[in-house]
Amino acid sequence: MGLLSLLVFSPIVGFIILFFIPKHDMKMLHKIALAASFIPFLFGLLVFILFKTDEIPADILKWIEFEAGEKSFVIHYELAVDGFSTILIFLTAIIMSIAILAGSFHVKKDIRMFYQLMFLLELGVLGVFASGNLFLFFIFFEITLIPMFLLLSKWGGTDREESAFHYLVYNGIGSLILLVAIAAIFVSAGSTNFDTVMQHFATNENSGLALGIAIALLLAFGIKLPIFPLHSWMVKVHVDAPIPVVIVHAGVLLKIGAYGLITFGIGFFPVAFEKLVLVLAILGLVNLLYGAYLALVQKELRAVLAYSSISHMGIILLGIAALNESGIQGAIFQAVSHGLIAALFFLLVGSLANRTNTTSLKKLSGLARLTPLLAGFLLVAALAGLGLPGMSGFVSEFMVFLGLFEQLPWIGVIGTLGLVLTVVYMLRVVMNMTFGTYRNMFGEIKDLNVYEVVPTLVLIICIIGIGVFPNIIASTIQLTIETLRLGIGG
Amino acid sequence: MDLKTLLSFEWGMMAPEFTILIVAVILSLIDLFGKDSIKKYIPSFAVAGIGLALIFLLFQYGHEEVSILYDTYIFDSFAFSFKFILLIGTLLIFFMVLSKQKDEEITDRGEYVYLLLSALLGTMMMASSGDLITLFVGLELLSLSSYIMVAMRKRNKRANEGAMKYIINGGIATAFTLFGMSYIYGISGTTKLVDISREMSSALGTTEPIATVGFIILFVGLAFKISSVPFHMWTPDVYEGAATPVSAFLSVVSKAAGFVIIIRLFVTIFNTGVEGNETLYSSMIGFVAILAILSMLIGNIIALRQRNMKRLIAYSSIGHAGYILIPIVSLSAMTLENVWFYLLAYSFMTIGAFMVIYILEQSEKSEDISIFTGLFQRSPVLAISMTIFLLSLAGIPGTAGFIGKFNIFVGAISADPAQYILVGVMAVATVISYLYYFNILIQMFIRQPEFEGRRTVNKMQAVPLIACITGTIVLGIFPFIALNFFS
């Protein structure tokens, strides 16, 4: 059993240990769950460090073999990581620990089952990023579906079951399109291993099949990302899911879409994606502007953040559409950066909602007087979200637009409008909340306690760290970018 | 036929069939004349008999092809592998029968047992027959035994309704089948499948219109057994009316037998043609494809509105019949393997689901979906088991159902021409099926229980449950065990 298998299956430890703790011993459950969430975190850190210094061997075991006439199809159990997935694995581990910590404030009923489902979800997400072939990727991808569905339908807000079914249907459609695409790739290449598939389609790149699969992948991951007309489920999840789940969802799960589009889309079908560049660019632009505009008119803080996520995902699409080194690099940066920023935002929104019992923007104003720390952190999050230089958002947006202006300058020009809108809606929301007129509506409420401040600070340090030393990530993903660049052909 | 020729046949190949036949006869005699003290062991005898037949069958593993009784009985790898599913499925159903609680309404336990055995014998003959006559006799043996089993709960209104529908629909379907066979006989002048296939390929062209009519009529007739469109309407009523083990038998073993006969007939008769020419089969697959699409969509969409659990499973089984028709449409080297694997996976997950329903329906006296409310609190074991079966039926990775679905996808895409439309419809149907399968998950894990008290699983109930869970998980994680066994 290699390091990667240990990493992927490490959340099982927490899942099992929790069975032995009495259901009603809340304090113990919180402590054990948090402690167990550090196991995958340590493995993630180890993988990250080892990846920097040395190659990580892939875990391979022969698994399934199909015979079809003379052709035989083999599927291995194989785990492997590259730079991009290493970073996402690390991000997953951090955000999961934070979400589980947040669970202790936000989840009141059946806490044991909640934590267990969270660990199952973590297993799925880690597996998604660590798989070395498409078949395994799909298996883990589907594993995330079930815990998410149960988490949403049991612990969600008022419309929880409806939201859960929305989630299920959209993601079900996405994953089945993906499954058909994987089956088609498998039949054509005889394997689902990433390298084999890449080489296979590099030699047969002009076929209609490649274009068809590329479109299928765009659809499948477009639902996950989400891309404009397919986004309604994601807004529902953002509004209805319990805070720890939203943290994981916005922070990590949405990134599966970006990961898939970049690693499989551009990685396997660069030629087909070149034909789709304009479509991608327009979709990205629509996401960016539509998300930003709707974020501007929302009355609910959570809905603002949901549309802001859509808008930020547009930037990833634009980076992919640029189809050059800095564009893709920017897209990867944006994926990581948005993960951190969204997690930070929802962590704070959770703390806020716990105190005020509302996220309606009308009621929230002048919090700086009541809870200076909370208000201050919200302002920091907003600044990070609008891409202030020195923070991670700036690096990614800068690189995406650098790449975009090189390839499609007009799209770039319109896109900058979206950035302006971002500044407007972020400031509109946060300025009023922090510095608006103070009305004594909530009575005495306490400021953040230490268990809320620590994870917030961790996230802020990460955001600023990436903003100031982007090389931490840039050097890790260098090889990934290099491979992708070779595929694109320049 | 003198004694010498009679003895020269390799009768040993029929050992599994003979075992079932002898056990069925002995059990019916015991039921008639035996004392009550012996009678209560009848189901156990049947289990032993099936076990013995299974052992005989396994001894034939890898045996070369044999045909006895002038080609009316064939033993080949096809017959072997499908008989394996039939026996395993029936064995699981007998475990279900054994687990029943005292106050279940079927008191005529003996009849029940030997009717199941005679139905099993019919299916096994179908798997091995190489002649239209024996094929039809096997089919009728299965049908008649099934009619009686459904009608046996004679004081139950639903059962009477179901039995009535079953026998009328079944009669019509049988007439269709026989009528279709008469066309085939008319063209070829023989009832032996091998000869028919030779005659058909040489006579193609002049007799094609008649053969086409024969094909359509025969297929429509056989659609009854696999409960696919157009003969699917009986399924929900019969499943609801029949005792749950009988419903499980109809949905697994009887359906598997239906697929056996379809493959045997259509692939041997219609799929041979003159070199280079299109065979009749390949020109008719559009028709089968439409039936498959309709089955998948109708089954899964109507299942959305069901509240009675057995009706829900019935509609879902119509959808599954549509899935299994896909490999038959996209004829390739993988067809048999795909159908076989899916049927095996389907046996485990469906019998498992029926088993959970059976346990709950006996303790709650209801078949409504509300028996699942809060099940996770009342009986975590049952809730987790049902979750595994439902996830497998929905095709979620880690379970047998997923590998089966992926197999069908790969088979359909690698076929020539690739069946993208069918694959697409199957994907859509699967997403629709998520809705009702996950709805049961919500009932079990999230809703508050509507029934009081904890439910425990006793030893007899645990046997089939454990067997089905093991089958579902092992086939999902180590599918090569089954795939290697098959090839």
From TrEMBL, chain A:
According to the entry, every stretch annotated as the NADH:quinone oxidoreductase/Mrp antiporter transmembrane domain falls at: 131-420
Q: Name one Pfam family in it.
A: Proton_antipo_M
Q: Which domain of life is it from?
A: Bacteria
Q: Which GO terms describe its cellular component?
A: plasma membrane
Localization? Cell membrane; Membrane
Recorded GO MF terms: NADH dehydrogenase (ubiquinone) activity; NADH dehydrogenase activity; ubiquinone binding
Predominant location of this chain? membrane
Keywords from the named record: Membrane, Transmembrane, Transmembrane helix
Work out whether the entry's keyword set contains Transmembrane. yes
The protein's topology relative to the membrane is: Multi-pass membrane protein
Task: Tell me where the transmembrane regions lie.
Answer: 6-21, 33-51, 83-102, 114-130, 136-155, 167-189, 209-231, 243-270, 276-297, 304-323, 335-354, 366-388, 408-427, 448-469
Q: Name one process (GO BP) from the record.
A: electron transport coupled proton transport
Name the InterPro entries on file: NADH_Q_OxRdtase_chainM/4, NADH_UbQ_OxRdtase, ND/Mrp_TM
**Which family is this sequence assigned to?**
Belongs to the complex I subunit 4 family.
The molecule here is called NADH-quinone oxidoreductase subunit M
**Species this chain originates from:** Salirhabdus euzebyi
- Which taxonomic lineage does the organism of this UniProt entry have? Bacteria, Bacillati, Bacillota, Bacilli, Bacillales
TrEMBL record, chain B:
Q: Name one GO biological process term.
A: ATP synthesis coupled electron transport
Q: Does the keyword NAD apply?
A: yes
Q: Which residues cross the membrane?
A: 12-34, 41-61, 73-98, 110-127, 133-152, 164-185, 210-234, 246-267, 279-303, 312-333, 339-360, 381-400, 420-442, 463-486
Keywords on record: Cell membrane, Membrane, NAD, Quinone, Translocase, Transmembrane, Transmembrane helix, Transport
Give the superkingdom in one word. Answer: Bacteria
Q: A Pfam family matched by this chain, by name?
A: Proton_antipo_M
Residues in NADH:quinone oxidoreductase/Mrp antiporter transmembrane domain copies? 129-428
- Cellular compartments annotated: Cell membrane; Membrane
Q: How does it sit in the membrane?
A: Multi-pass membrane protein
Care to name a GO molecular-function term for this sequence? quinone binding
The UniProt record lists the EC number as 7.1.1.-
One Gene Ontology cellular component term attached to this UniProt record is:
plasma membrane
Q: Has UniProt tagged this entry with the keyword Transmembrane helix?
A: yes
EC category name = translocase
Listed under catalytic activity are:
a quinone + NADH + 5 H(+)(in) = a quinol + NAD(+) + 4 H(+)(out)
Assembly, per entry: NDH-1 is composed of 14 different subunits. Subunits NuoA, H, J, K, L, M, N constitute the membrane sector of the complex.
The protein's job, in short, is: NDH-1 shuttles electrons from NADH, via FMN and iron-sulfur (Fe-S) centers, to quinones in the respiratory chain. The immediate electron acceptor for the enzyme in this species is believed to be a menaquinone. Couples the redox reaction to proton translocation (for every two electrons transferred, four hydrogen ions are translocated across the cytoplasmic membrane), and thus conserves the redox energy in a proton gradient.
Q: Which family does it belong to?
A: Belongs to the complex I subunit 2 family.
Record protein name field: NADH-quinone oxidoreductase subunit N
Organism annotation: Salirhabdus euzebyi
Encoding gene (name): nuoN
